UniProtKB/TrEMBL annotation:
<feature type="transmembrane region" description="Helical">
    <location>
        <begin position="320"/>
        <end position="348"/>
    </location>
</feature>
<keyword id="KW-0460">Magnesium</keyword>
<dbReference type="GO" id="GO:0016020">
    <property type="term" value="C:membrane"/>
</dbReference>
<keyword id="KW-1133">Transmembrane helix</keyword>
<feature type="transmembrane region" description="Helical">
    <location>
        <begin position="77"/>
        <end position="95"/>
    </location>
</feature>
<feature type="transmembrane region" description="Helical">
    <location>
        <begin position="279"/>
        <end position="300"/>
    </location>
</feature>
<feature type="transmembrane region" description="Helical">
    <location>
        <begin position="1006"/>
        <end position="1030"/>
    </location>
</feature>
<comment type="similarity">
    <text>Belongs to the cation transport ATPase (P-type) (TC 3.A.3) family. Type IIA subfamily.</text>
</comment>
<dbReference type="InterPro" id="IPR023299">
    <property type="entry name" value="ATPase_P-typ_cyto_dom_N"/>
</dbReference>
<feature type="transmembrane region" description="Helical">
    <location>
        <begin position="107"/>
        <end position="127"/>
    </location>
</feature>
<dbReference type="Pfam" id="PF00122">
    <property type="entry name" value="E1-E2_ATPase"/>
</dbReference>
<dbReference type="GO" id="GO:0016887">
    <property type="term" value="F:ATP hydrolysis activity"/>
</dbReference>
<dbReference type="InterPro" id="IPR001757">
    <property type="entry name" value="P_typ_ATPase"/>
</dbReference>
<keyword id="KW-0812">Transmembrane</keyword>
<dbReference type="InterPro" id="IPR044492">
    <property type="entry name" value="P_typ_ATPase_HD_dom"/>
</dbReference>
<dbReference type="InterPro" id="IPR006068">
    <property type="entry name" value="ATPase_P-typ_cation-transptr_C"/>
</dbReference>
<dbReference type="InterPro" id="IPR023214">
    <property type="entry name" value="HAD_sf"/>
</dbReference>
Length: 1056
């Protein structure tokens, strides 16, 4: 271990042993960190601590070298087989060129094409893996670059933040990004609020204090600490650095992302293809050995003398020939085009998903989505709108013990979204006017219309009150106004601000839990308008305003009625704010905002605010919430029908989360959920965590921290679940990395979360996830179709070469032709199968298991039968050309070629020993093939027409076989080819490409083929078309046998 790494490890150990600054008072912290808060650290102290703790930077994890990444791309069974085939093919081409004393470029086409495939595959793999480091880079951008520090008794501005050390005294102002984890030691302003939601998951800025908190507090509870990467949104303060670099909370997230990225697993499809590669290796080995054993007599012979083999004769030329057959077998068995077709299909899938607002960042995620069994969803912004809205307005009645309640519609910041039920439009009584005025004027927020819809500027709760004011409208005396006039979204609020002008603000603080403003009317009369926590306002209120505007004393009975209403709203998971006011507040009767006024000094000290806000007149209250999205309930139902479990994990409090879960259908309205709703801490202390997660139904985890989310994801994966996890903050990044599918929010999400994710929701909507899962299932089914199609084609090619070697006839297909078929000819139909229409019941079925086989035993049998027919057809047409003058009435003698017997064809290697064997010249296209000098070349150079027929039959059969792949079980009569017009186009393209290499002389020479006549094409079709009939029979047998096994299934589905 190097010195740098050792120092980092020591600093981490030191961090663990260091005192919990949040649980100690300011003086004790100063003693522990050995610093004078006014003088700061000296240069000598800083130098020592830099040596001890290192710089305040996140570690740069050394990623794999480019060479290492390239080597990794060849750590795959299929790739290794291809590489071996390419090397052997290259050596053989070189050897044959040396012997013939001329190197032909055509001999090297095959190895060069294979090498090209491997290079492209490696480039794509390296590019994808290098992208994995981006989440860590995005995390570094969150860190502050500079800080204002007190050192040597002087203030140092713009000090590079990486030079901060534990014990440094730092000044923070509004807008600053926090440069390290720090203890707040002094509030310069009355309040300090920090936006730390990206780290903790909290939806609003958090007020900070200098008071210590219990040592066991979670990160949200550490109210006297500010954390690296968060932002000061209000106030300024003095802080003491407690942790730097990797010891900060954001440093821990960095480590967790790194650990999670190292724990990333292959997708279910990748695992299956790897297993397929392993099986293929064994099969190729066995087939090659079998071919050699069958043909060993051709290149190795011996005599038995005295019972022992003697006089061995070895033909290196024949041995090399059968070695070439082994290479051809490897090329035939490997579906070289499969990676390209899978990538194309996944890319097309990402386009479909993008149209549904799901932006896929990593292609394999499309397939993984299809087998998702659990969706772990955040609440805020995903299940809910992340837009606070008033749901209930409570005003006073005719008497002190009577309250009126109004239901408020709408879930967004759009003032025209919904209305207030039973609202006396234009006839607002005095009490309702007071509430509207307070909500409009004691408010610093606004509403704007942007590309993303209606958004809040300022605090979400205050923006919701502004929307309420617009829905309340204006009293008659203001005239008829609405939010559509001059496109002014806040016309009512603006009208109230014309009537009463704000001249002073009493900022919110945690102690009094309220915010007030002093306003002056046109008549010059001043009023104090206050909004805040209902209990606190009631304590400071002495009177109550009634419906008609009259004011009565607030007695205990009236307080009880109001508190009962408060409890009722709170139990419905509403956040409740009260409204109160005071006319002509003492000391401020003549105040006009002038700094020279005697009352102005009272406003400079926040300690006076509680006294100013006393003897209030209570006016009413409003219940606010972050409402659930309208479409989420149906999406939850869809998940249930699709067999997908929904687990809600939120940082919010338990009551609010439970109420939302009941409303959206995760839980029933009156269901007992005591065993299914836990806080993060309760879950970590649970005696049977896996047993709790194994419950197949909705679960809720509230007050959850990042480590809780990671543990839940890890345990679910241990249980064999395929987990999709949503998140938007920095704190969510490790869990997003760890999940099978990490889903980040596109609107509210941080860049760190997006970089760590596999998919980004453009609309932050849960229902988009469900739609993406359905699309993933459809894509997987289509991928299964073309994987089966390509594998069945390869089985046919292997059967063809094996039969050729087994019966001893000349090879009918050479490796370069097989490569062309696997890569080019099969590619378009396989890709087009990705456009198969989705099954309409796709989201009514349980998710497939991630270990389900791609090919069942019956499907494998079907494709072995088809493969055997392909082999027989390609070898058969080769045999027919050499031995028959006609087939099914088709005349094959027009080219004038010589017919031979089966015995001659099977023993062509002994041609030189045949007496009086002559061959007539024959014509193929514009070329004339003559064998006067060497008749035996008829079985090598002269097989060019027979090879062309074999290749053409193979291409035609595979085109017709792609029609069979339209459906696993359905007949072409019920699912005709035109249900997928892209497949018909693809077949035309593939046939066009085949005609191209047949009828372009240069290409025909490269591939060792010649043009075919009309009769020869009739022969090709006659041999190829039966593949459709054979598979139709097999499909029928499959439907009959499966139907008899699953007769009760339909009735079962109905009862469900």
């Amino acid at each position: 271990m190097g010195k740098g790494s050792q120092r980092k490890e020591e600093s981490r150990g030191e961090s663990r042993n260091r005192c919990p600054a949040w649980a100690k008072d300011v003086q004790e912290c100063a003693r522990n960190y050995q610093v004078d808060m006014k003088f700061g650290l000296s240069d000598g102290d800083v130098e020592k601590r830099l040596r001890k703790y290192g710089t305040n930077e996140l570690e740069k994890h050394e990623g794999r070298s480019i060479f290492g990444l390239i080597v990794d791309q060849f750590n795959d069974t299929l790739v290794r087989i291809l590489l071996a085939a390419a090397v052997i093919s290259f050596v053989l081409a070189w050897y044959e060129g040396e012997e013939d004393e001329e190197m032909e470029i055509t001999a090297f086409v095959e190895p060069l094409v294979i090498f090209l495939i491997l290079i492209v595959n490696a480039i794509v793999g390296v590019w994808q893996e290098s992208n994995a480091e981006k989440a860590l880079e995005a995390l570094k951008e969150i860190q502050s670059e500079q800080a204002t520090v007190i050192r040597n008794g002087r203030k140092v501005s713009c000090l590079p933040a990486k030079e901060l050390v534990p014990g440094d005294i730092v000044e923070l102002r509004v807008g600053d990004k926090v440069p390290a984890d720090m203890r707040v030691v002094n509030l310069v302003s009355s309040t300090l609020r920090v936006e730390q939601g990206s780290l903790t998951g909290e939806s609003e800025a958090v007020s900070k204090t200098t008071k210590p908190v219990p040592e066991a507090s979670d990160i949200q509870g550490k109210k006297c600490m500010v954390f690296s990467g968060t932002t000061v949104v209000n106030g300024n303060c003095i802080c003491m650095v407690t942790e730097t670099g990797m010891n900060t909370e954001i440093g821990k997230v960095h480590s967790q992302i790194q650990e999670a990225s190292q724990a990333e697993e292959d997708t279910p499809l990748k695992k299956k293809l790897n297993e397929f590669g392993d099986v293929l290796t064994v099969l190729i080995g066995l087939i090659c050995i079998t071919v050699w054993v069958i043909n060993v007599k051709y290149f190795l012979s011996w005599e038995f003398v005295d019972g022992w083999p003697r006089n061995f004769k070895f033909s290196f030329e024949k041995c090399t020939y059968y070695f070439e057959i082994a290479v051809a077998l490897a090329v035939a068995a490997i579906p070289e085009g499969l990676p390209a077709v899978i990538t194309t299909c996944l890319a097309l899938g990402t386009r479909k998903m993008a149209q549904k607002n799901a932006l896929v960042r990593k292609l394999p995620s499309v397939e993984t989505l299809g087998c998702t069994t659990v969706i772990c969803s955040d609440k805020t912004g995903t299940l809910t709108t992340n837009q606070m809205a008033v749901a209930k307005l409570v005003a006073t009645g005719h008497g002190p013990n009577v309250l009126r309640s109004f239901n408020v519609e709408g879930t967004t910041y759009n003032p025209l979204d919904g209305k207030i039920q039973d609202w006396p439009a234009g006839r607002m009584d005095a009490n309702l006017r007071t509430i509207a005025k307070i909500a409009a004027l004691a408010n610093d927020a606004g509403i704007e219309k942007s590309e993303k819809g209606y958004v809040a500027t300022g605090m979400p709760t205050e923006a919701a009150l502004k929307v309420l004011v617009e829905k309340m409208g204006l009293p008659n005396e203001f005239g008829s106004r609405s939010a559509t006039i001059n496109n002014d979204l806040m016309v009512c609020s603006h009208e109230w601000s014309k009537v009463e002008t704000r001249i002073a603000t009493l900022e919110f603080d945690r102690d009094r839990k309220s915010m007030g403003v002093i306003v002056s009317s046109k008549s010059g009369r001043n009023s104090l308008l206050v909004k805040g926590a209902v209990e606190n306002l009631l304590e400071r209120s002495s009177h109550l305003q009634l419906l008609d505007g009259s004011v009565v004393e607030l007695d205990n009975r009236a307080k009880t009625v109001i508190l009962n209403s408060l409890n009722e709203l709170s139990s419905s998971a509403l956040r409740v704010l009260g409204f109160a006011y005071k006319e002509d507040p003492p000391e401020f009767t003549t105040y006009n905002g002038d700094e020279d006024h005697p009352a102005h000094n009272l406003l400079l000290d926040p300690a006076n605010y509680s006294k100013i806000e006393s003897n209030l007149v209570f006016a009413g209250l409003a219940g606010l919430r972050d409402p659930p999205r309208k479409e989420v309930r149906q999406a939850i139902e869809d998940c249930r029908a699709a067999g997908i479990q929904v687990i809600v994990i939120t940082g919010d409090n338990k009551n609010t989360a439970e109420a939302i879960c009941r409303e959206i259908g995760v839980f029933g309205q009156h269901e007992d959920i005591s065993s299914r709703s836990l806080t993060g801490r309760e879950f970590m202390e649970h005696h049977d965590q896996k047993g709790h997660l194994a419950y197949k139904g909705g679960l809720l985890f509230s007050r959850a921290e990042p480590r809780h989310k990671q543990e839940i994801v890890r345990l679910l994966k241990d249980l064999g679940e395929v987990v999709a996890m949503t998140g938007d903050g920095v704190n969510d990044a490790p869990a997003l990395k760890l999940a099978d599918i990490g889903i980040a929010m596109g609107i509210a999400g941080t860049e760190v979360a997006k970089e760590a994710s596999d998919m980004v929701l453009a609309d932050d909507n849960f229902s988009t996830i469900v739609a993406a899962v359905g699309e993933g299932r459809s894509i997987y089914n289509n991928m299964k179709a073309f994987i089966r199609y390509m594998i069945s084609s390869n089985i046919g090619e292997v059967a063809s070469i094996f039969l050729t070697a087994a019966i001893g006839i000349p090879e009918g297909l050479i490796p370069v032709q097989l490569l062309w078929v696997n890569l080019v000819t099969d590619g378009p139909p396989a890709t087009a199968l990705g456009f198969n229409p989705p099954d309409k019941y796709i989201m009514k079925k349980a998710p497939r298991r991630s270990d389900d086989s791609l090919i069942s035993a019956w499907i494998l049998f079907r494709y072995l039968v088809i493969g055997l027919y392909v082999g027989m057809a390609t070898v058969g047409v080769f045999y027919i050309w050499y031995t028959h003058d006609s087939f099914l009435g088709i005349d094959l003698t027009q080219d004038g070629h010589t017919l031979v017997t089966y015995s001659q064809l099977a023993n062509w290697g002994q041609c030189k020993t045949w007496e009086n064997f002559t061959v007539n010249p024959f014509k193929a296209g514009d070329r004339l093939f003559s064998f006067d000098s060497n008749p035996c070349d008829y079985f090598q150079g002269g097989k060019v027409k027979a090879m062309t027929l074999s290749l053409s039959v193979l291409v035609a059969i595979e085109m017709f076989n792609s029609l069979n792949a339209l459906s696993e079980d359905e007949s072409l009569l019920t699912m005709p080819p035109w249900v997928n017009p892209w497949l018909l186009i693809a077949m035309c393209v593939s046939f066009g490409l085949h005609f191209l290499i047949l009828y372009v002389p240069f290409l025909a020479r490269v591939f060792g083929i010649v043009p075919l006549s009309f009769n020869e094409w009739l022969l090709v079709l006659a041999v190829a078309l039966p593949v459709i009939l054979i598979d139709e029979i097999l499909k029928f047998v499959g439907r009959v046998t499966n139907g008899s096994r699953s007769n009760p299934r339909p009735s079962k589905r109905k009862t469900e």
